[in-house]
């Protein structure tokens, strides 16, 4: 094991410090500064800051030429109020590390401790601390940053903790690992009227009411069958909170989710058709926009084999598992490299991701770090 007991104690304390200072997507300034301060003690050959916004990349060079291997974690937290009584609970109202990105960050920081002691023999390792995963904007911003070309990887790896899976057990499969998703906002505009004379206005009430079940009815299939199509209505606004006004404006927000990007386009087309038909029926203007766009995450067979070999060498129990409905912007790294991610069990009875009482299990830090370090050594020596 490349981590000493002291390393693990320090990494655990640091993870808990990060847990107490959550920053949401695009605001990870203090978290990035913490990462840079930690990395200073590991003396990487190069540190790139402000990557894709607030991202940080640390580069450890080998003596011989070889591939570039990237290990990625996420810096951002969620706009969720933490309800735990932990001593390291969030100090920021309405914000919390309810997805475990603080633990992922500590796991990648553990690799910096290892490479500080012994550089790879060849090639180079890039440790990427990525911003804004929760909104789907971070990976795209990092890849679009002109400095990314300097660290463009041949292989990219990531992990995500997974409550419901036994502690330390791994799911790893080839092919689709996470679904594609995006948020759709449908805005319907008519004309307000006095509530006593609604016939003098144009209300979006019927249109918005019909769209909620119509969008939901587009759902079918399953992840296991590779044909999931899912539309989930999350928010509806109709008019203003007033008794004297018949509404003239409405918004519907929904999440569209499919197994693959190709299926997503078909679902988008169907959702837009429904919105335009409902608007036209009642003489409404319609505007459709999209946010938080995630591509599906596809594990490359060679990259998955490398992770599988590392799991076997480290004696860590694993199985293929299932693709997850949840989305992950790590999938974009598959467009520039051979990439794969695995799921690391957080415990069968552990609170679910995005629950207000979630906390990353610190015992996973050395386990995840061992898997990644073995993968790096197998590739680079």
Protein described:
- With 381 residues, the chain is an alpha/beta fold.
- The protein has two domains: 5-178 and 296-380, 3-Layer(aba) Sandwich (Aminopeptidase); 180-294, Alpha-Beta Plaits.
- It has eight helices and 16 strands.
- The protein has helices spanning 5-19, 29-40, 101-117, 138-144, 205-216, 261-281, 301-314, 364-380, and strands at 46-51, 55-61, 64-74, 122-130, 155-162, 170-171, 175-178, 180-189, 193-194, 229-238, 245-246, 249-258, 285-294, 297-299, 318-319, 338-345.
- The strands form four sheets. It has an eight-stranded mixed beta sheet, with helices on both faces.
- Strand 3 (64-74), helix 3 (101-117) and strand 4 (122-130) form a beta-alpha-beta unit.
- Helix 5 (205-216) runs antiparallel to helix 6 (261-281).
- The longest helix is centred in the last third of the chain and has 21 residues, at 261-281.
- The radius of gyration is 23 Å and the shape is elongated.
- It starts with a helix and ends with a helix.
- The mean pLDDT is 97.
- InterPro entries: Amidohydrolase (IPR017439), Bact_exopeptidase_dim_dom (IPR036264), Peptidase_M20 (IPR002933), Peptidase_M20_dimer (IPR011650).
- Residues 181-282 form the Peptidase M20 dimerisation domain.
- Keywords: Hydrolase.
- This is Amidohydrolase.
- It comes from Pseudorhizobium tarimense.
Topology of this protein?
Layout: H1 5-19, H2 29-40, E1 46-51, E2 55-61, E3 64-74, H3 101-117, E4 122-130, H4 138-144, E5 155-162, E6 170-171, E7 175-178, E8 180-189, E9 193-194, H5 205-216, E10 229-238, E11 245-246, E12 249-258, H6 261-281, E13 285-294, E14 297-299, H7 301-314, E15 318-319, E16 338-345, H8 364-380
């Amino acid at each position: 094991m490349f981590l000493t007991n002291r390393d693990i104690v320090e990494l655990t304390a640091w993870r808990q410090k990060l847990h107490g200072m959550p920053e949401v997507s695009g605001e990870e300034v203090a978290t990035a500064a913490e990462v840079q301060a930690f990395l200073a003690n590991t003396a990487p050959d190069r540190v790139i800051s402000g990557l894709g916004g607030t991202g940080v990349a640390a580069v450890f060079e080998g003596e011989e030429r070889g591939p570039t291997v990237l290990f990625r974690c996420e810096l951002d937290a969620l706009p969720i109020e933490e309800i735990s009584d932990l001593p390291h609970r969030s100090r920021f109202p309405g914000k919390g590390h309810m997805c475990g990105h603080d633990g992922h960050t500590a796991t990648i920081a553990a690799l910096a401790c290892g490479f500080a002691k012994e550089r790879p023999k060849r090639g180079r390792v890039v440790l990427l601390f990525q911003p804004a995963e929760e909104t789907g904007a971070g990976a795209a911003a990092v890849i679009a940053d002109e400095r990314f070309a300097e660290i463009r990887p041949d292989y990219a790896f990531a992990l995500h903790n997974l409550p419901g899976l036994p502690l330390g057990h791994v799911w790893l499969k080839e092919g689709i690992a996470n679904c594609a998703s995006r948020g759709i906002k449908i805005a319907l505009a008519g004309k307000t009227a006095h509530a006593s004379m609604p016939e003098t206005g144009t209300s979006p009430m019927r249109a918005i009411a019909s769209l909620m079940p119509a969008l939901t009815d587009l759902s079918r299939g399953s992840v296991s069958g590779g044909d999931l199509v899912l539309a989930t209505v999350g928010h509806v606004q109709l008019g203003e909170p007033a008794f004297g006004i018949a509404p003239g404006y409405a918004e519907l927000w929904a999440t569209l989710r499919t197994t693959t990007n190709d299926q997503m386009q078909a679902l988008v087309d169907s959702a837009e058709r429904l919105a335009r038909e409902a608007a036209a029926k009642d003489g409404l203007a319609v505007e459709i926009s999209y946010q938080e766009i995630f591509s599906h995450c596809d594990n490359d067979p060679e990259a998955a084999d490398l992770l599988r070999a590392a799991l076997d060498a480290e004696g860590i129990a694993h199985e293929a598992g299932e693709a997850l409905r949840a989305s992950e912007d790590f999938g974009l790294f598959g467009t520039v490299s051979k990439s794969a991610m695995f799921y690391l069990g957080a415990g069968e009875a552990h609170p679910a991701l995005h629950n207000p009482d979630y906390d990353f299990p610190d015992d996973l830090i050395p386990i995840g770090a061992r898997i990644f370090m073995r993968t790096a050594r197998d590739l680079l020596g």
